[in-house]
Amino acid sequence: MSNSENSFDASPYDLTQAKLTFGEKLAYGAGDLGTSITTNLLSFFLLFFFTNVAGLDPALAGLVLLIGKIFDAINDPIIGVLSDRTKSKMGRRLPWMIYSAIPFGLTFLAQWLVPSTDKTVLFWYYAIIGIIFNTFFTAVNLPYTALTPEITQDYNERTSLNTFRFTFSIGGSILSLIIAQIIFAFFKDPARQTGSCNTGGMQYIVLGAVCAIISSISIYWCVFGIKRRAIASDRHRLHNESLDTHNEELSFGEQLKIVFNNRPFLFVIGIYFCSWLSLQITASIIPYFVVNWMKMQESDFILVTIAVQGTALIMLSVWSAISKRFGKKAAYFMGSGIWIIAQAGLFFLQEGQVVLLYILAIMAGAGVSTAYLIPWSMIPDVTDLDELETGQRREGIFYAFMVLLQKFGLALGLFLLGLGLSWAKFKESVPCQPLPVQPDSALFAIRVAIGPLPTIALIIGLGLAYFYPITREVHTEILMRLAERRRQGSESSE
């Protein structure tokens, strides 16, 4: 073996030896701050901005969002495969993040501009900007998420790493709401003083600019904080692949076949889909539930959301410790059990039971935390099994389908909600007019959407988690077999 190979094996950044430092974990977590801020703001405010600030017809605004989601889903597996095949001195993931960070921030800001009063021009402007933004979002986010199994192979450290990631993710969601409230309070809209119901575009431009800067900076913090580790791990991967005589470049179709023949991966995406679908349905229906059923103020749903997200943030470290002691499946069962009780309980809430609403929101937040943490901690174990079976590491394609399912979960949840509310004769609000009184059928549909529907999805997810085959012991055996294969390959190359 050459001196360079001996030197590399002795490196403190050898994945089989080194532990992640606190600074590396912190930097890695920061990589999810920008994407969580932008995602949260777009979810809460973009449709309202299109209709109430830009002046788009609601149907055109919905079509813009649909086009963006469809294109977003298409580009996930494409960028996943491309990032798997990228070769550079910075490794295969970091270049995507470095070169996409600034365009990601600029295109996010561009979505909050109103360049024309012509509705046709606005439609095409927002549709094109949405496609470009979603491309750079994927170019940043997918390689970032695929870094988890590359920079550590330790079963427990991966859970710890994801704890840092989702601390920044949930924290970013909360931060985005706080920033929005501060900016909207500071930049008073003159139109409101004259009795107009139109909100000022300047508020959204400032909000977009501030969050674009924060988002881009956080990506660079991540890149330069984990650069040495990521580069060394990529060299380590190339070294191991060079020792595998069975290693062949597979076509995209062949990679898809391998991914969906990976039985543990099917369980993970099922668990994740059920959890995320429950989360998205709940998040989308909360404003209707709080305002129309609980008869609270429109701004109160943000406080309820913060109660959920704040609890999820606090519980990340708790579930991480429980996972380390009892395993990932046990942690998921505990968290989902609490979540199911809370979700089902929301159906029985009555007007005036505000304290009980916040108690259930806090309980739900404890469970939501496991939906973020556990499935994403399982995926690296799946990629280890894939390497054992195929001789290649294809984190990009696995993570691409995880992200794709997250987006389909959002799209499916919103579609089902819209269909259900329409069928239940929900009355839409009219700007500048009091909220309409909803019929009993619409109120019942809202209660079903926030209670039974997410509960059923969570129960299905629990069933899938029960049969998930990669335990701590199984993963240890996978790593031992991988180490033995690499040892044999190293000896045969000498």
Structure description:
Residues 1-13 and 190-199 have low confidence and may be disordered. Helix 2 crosses helix 8 (155-186). This protein has helices spanning 3-9, 22-30, 33-52, 58-85, 94-110, 119-145, 148-151, 155-186, 190-193, 201-243, 252-260, 263-293, 300-326, 328-346, 354-390, 395-423, 440-450, 452-467, 472-493. Helix content is 79%, strand content 0%. The longest helix has 43 residues, at 201-243. The chain contains 19 helices and no strands. It has 494 residues and is an all-alpha fold.
The profile of the biggest β sheet is: none
Tally of DSSP helical segments: 19
Cα gyration radius (Å): 23 Å
If you average the pLDDT, what whole number results?
80
Could you estimate the helical fraction of the residues in percent?
Answer: over 70%
Explain the layout of strands and helices:
Layout: H1 3-9, H2 22-30, H3 33-52, H4 58-85, H5 94-110, H6 119-145, H7 148-151, H8 155-186, H9 190-193, H10 201-243, H11 252-260, H12 263-293, H13 300-326, H14 328-346, H15 354-390, H16 395-423, H17 440-450, H18 452-467, H19 472-493
